[in-house]
Automatic annotation (TrEMBL):
Transmembrane segments: 231-250, 284-302, 314-331
Record lineage: Eukaryota, Metazoa, Chordata, Craniata, Vertebrata
A GO molecular function held by the record: membrane insertase activity
Protein name: Membrane insertase YidC/Oxa/ALB C-terminal domain-containing protein
UniProt keyword annotation of Zinc-finger present: no
InterPro entries, alphabetized: YidC/ALB3/OXA1/COX18, YidC/Oxa/ALB_C
GO biological process, one term: mitochondrial respiratory chain complex IV assembly
Subcellular locations according to the entry: Membrane
GO cellular component, one term: mitochondrial inner membrane
Entry keywords, A to Z: Membrane, Transmembrane, Transmembrane helix
Length: 392
């Protein structure tokens, strides 16, 4: 008990609430009395007294811990959000998946995780970029959103995508050497296992451990670790989220700039069948277009992979499901966000097609691989025709 008490820091009593410290003191007194009677410090009687007091104390604490706590108040997240008057005619542009978090707003006006994200520094930076593009270009808001998307995708994600293809090409060129090493290593391990009498499990573990080390050395030698190819995801996904939340702030009137409401400008900054960028797209043209383009991107990726592994197959089906799920989600957010998603998907499709060009790959110094083709677009059309059209 003394060792446990010392390890848990019970001697200090600092971790105990004020109304539970008397239980601790009572247990200590019981132990002293029991020790004086039995003549030993760690007698069974003293231990039983201590355990009884600990049980009473834990019961008291469990009642306190199970009581509902008030919501945490987030402080210092930014200026207070003052929604612009909408006249009660427009539906709320708040996404359905954020209502549960933002609805639990305390008396001081602090919200949940979504409100913390909406007032974070990266989102405010995205708002500044959008406002700068709108002010500098003088375009209406639909043109400013299009211009910002093209600029961000061209200046940030396109170089990262080219770097991703550079790494993947070097990894692909290493596959013959990796297969040769695996074949020779398997033979060496089999001979060694016969000499030393290893079991099949021990031989297998030795093979896997040595193979991992040799493959890692190859990646270090050519500076092409596959994890470097994921840098595009870690940059593109947060950027997509921050710009989407910034447009949501604009559409709901949560952001004002120099005395004017951005929401009022977005209400008249649309074009064609969506003149109001703060309203939902009742025609569903934008949401369906997003789903179709995303599915097209997934199919282009699947067609260029001849022998996909089981994991790659599962990922492909998962991304297809997400692309379909984006259609009803896009129908519940303001048209400004959906327009950004559509422009981003179109840029992603153009980016994937551009990176298949032999001239562009040569310009980016992407190594040649066995899977490269001199006529990539003709091969892509033939594969698409064979998969979706000719078999009907």
């Amino acid at each position: 008990c003394d060792a446990i008490r010392h390890w848990c820091g019970w001697e200090s009593q600092l971790w105990l609430p004020a109304d539970s410290r008397h239980l601790y003191a009572r247990g200590r007194r019981r132990m002293r009395v029991a020790a004086s009677v039995s003549g030993t410090r760690s007698s069974p009687v003293s231990s039983a007294c201590w355990i009884q007091s600990c049980a009473e104390m834990l019961c008291r604490l469990s009642v306190r811990w199970l009581q509902p706590r008030p919501a945490l108040q987030l402080r210092g997240l930014g200026p207070p959000v003052v929604p612009a008057p909408t006249g009660g005619a427009k539906p709320s542009a708040l996404p359905l998946w954020a209502v549960a978090s933002v609805s639990a707003v305390g008396p001081s006006g602090a919200g949940g995780w979504y409100e913390a994200l909406a007032t974070s520094a990266p989102v405010q930076g995205a708002e500044d970029v959008l406002l700068f593009a709108h002010t500098a270009s003088g375009l209406p808001w639909w043109g400013s959103i299009l211009l910002t998307t093209v600029a961000l995708r061209g200046a940030v994600t396109l170089p990262l995508a080219a770097y991703q293809h550079y790494i993947l090409a070097k990894v692909e060129n290493l596959q013959p050497e990796i297969k040769s090493i695996a074949r020779h290593l398997n033979q060496d391990v089999a001979v060694r296992a016969n000499q030393l009498g290893w079991s099949k499990r021990a031989a297998r573990l030795t093979y896997l451990k040595t193979m991992r080390r040799l493959v890692s050395e190859l990646y270090v030698r050519d500076n092409c670790h596959p994890f470097k190819a994921t840098v595009l995801v870690w940059i593109q996904l947060p950027m997509w989220i921050f710009v989407s939340v910034a447009l949501r702030n604009f559409s709901t009137g949560a952001t004002h700039s120099e005395g004017f409401s951005v929401q009022e400008q977005l209400a008249t900054g649309g074009v064609l069948w969506f003149p109001d960028l703060t309203a939902l797209d009742s025609t569903w043209i934008l949401p369906v277009s997003i789903g179709v383009i995303n599915l097209l991107i997934v199919e282009i990726f699947a067609l260029q992979k001849v022998g996909m592994s089981r994991f790659q197959t599962y990922i492909t089906y998962f991304v297809r499901a997400v692309s379909v799920l984006m259609i009803p989600i896009a129908a519940t957010v303001p048209s400004s966000i959906v327009l950004y998603w559509l422009c981003s998907s179109l840029m992603g499709l153009s980016q994937n097609l551009l990176l298949r060009s032999p001239r562009f790959r040569q310009l980016c110094r992407i190594p040649l691989t066995k899977s490269d083709s001199d006529t990539p677009y003709k091969d892509l059309f033939a594969a698409f025709y064979a998969k979706f059209i000719s078999r009907k």
